[in-house]
Amino acid sequence: MKALGILCVFLTCAGTGFYLAMMLRKEVRIYERLTAFLKDCSVYIQYQNLPLQELFQILAGNPDYAGLQFLQNIREFRQDFETVWSCAVQSGTLPEDAERILLNLGHELGKTDVSGQIALLELYQNQMTRAYEDARTACFRKTKLYQSLGCLGGAMLAILFL
Amino acid sequence: MQTSENLQNIMHYLPVKVREALRCMNPSQTDKIQEIRLRCGRPAGIVLDGREIKLTPECIISTEEISRTFQAVCSYSVYSYEQELSEGYITLPGGCRVGISGSAVRQEQNVRTLKYINSLNFRIAGEFIGIAEQIFSQTSGSILIMGAVGSGKTTYLRDMCRLTGNHHRTALIDERGELASVQRGIPVHDVGLMTDIFDGYPRAAGIITALRVMSPEYIICDEISTESDVQAILQASGCGVRFAASCHAGSFAELRQRAFLRPLLDRNIFRYGIFLQDRAVKQIRRLTES
User: Taking CB atoms and an 8 Å limit, are B71 and A111 in contact across chains?
Assistant: First the structure.
């Protein structure tokens, strides 16, 4: 019974470490998708001149962006776009930096001509790329740390309980 | 689709207080609304039977409300309506046209876009199926529909298009998207079973393209207003195509005074002229000798 308990303690600690590492990797993937999403928005606006609603309907249906939950919340909007965008972005599924960048973008999206929108999206794409690089560096540095700490912490507790 | 249905379709674009004031109105009155006018710092107005009245004296429209309504009309995508903005109007789904006035941003001699929007005019489209049936059955050949602003030319032409499109191969040149109100390729209004729609084409280019690619028996186009339109009609008429077109003119005498239309009248392109007033046919006249 005692051995089983100790095993559970070890597995919980190691699992926490692996879970945190997985969250870091997930964050990197979200940034990756958001950068691609902004690039796609720019292309659709430049070459197809699609209004935001049609644009988001197309992108929300794209399997590459299936992980971006906020996109599903804005695919149909009939009221004020800025409000809908803010609510969708702040739904808690995005990393903090990505949320801040997208919130700022929402204040300006759709309000200027095509060249203005392209320049705007490029600006926010650059910001998103920087945030992606930071997340990737953090992921690279911390993934092994979290996994090792989890395993070692679990092992230490197991030894203490023995 | 009746006027009231179109009014419901545009309700969500309007500021809340305008919506509430409209909902408080008698339904028999709302059915007659032709236009809703929003102006910065002034009361909202409605046009009933050609006359503008205040919606309510306390319904003053703020700059913020104009701006929000403008964004909504542009589907929150101003970039997608650059061409329309430079021409001062946007056509909404359902065919209602929103006229926009503001400060022009110019590029050389042309208006590139608008800033500081100060007025919006929602013109409520009406689809009155059957209003052109009598004329359609009594006349053959090309017809020219004329009338003053708001006389119902577009509504009449739409029904004419439905009738010709159900009997003949018809090409509809819908430059401003008001006649068919195409939404992703599907016309919202009934424009006939055999009608090919050239949506958003400049009128003259649309006529020539339709002639080349669709071999129509009839071409329908709204508000001929330039010499290039006239030249395109002359060219297509020479190929045996019949026309149903509209133009601005307060009377038959005024029609004859419009210099750019003279080649069409001199060459007997239109067999009948139909003069509309207050959304009804006031006069039909044969324009050709034989």
Answer: yes
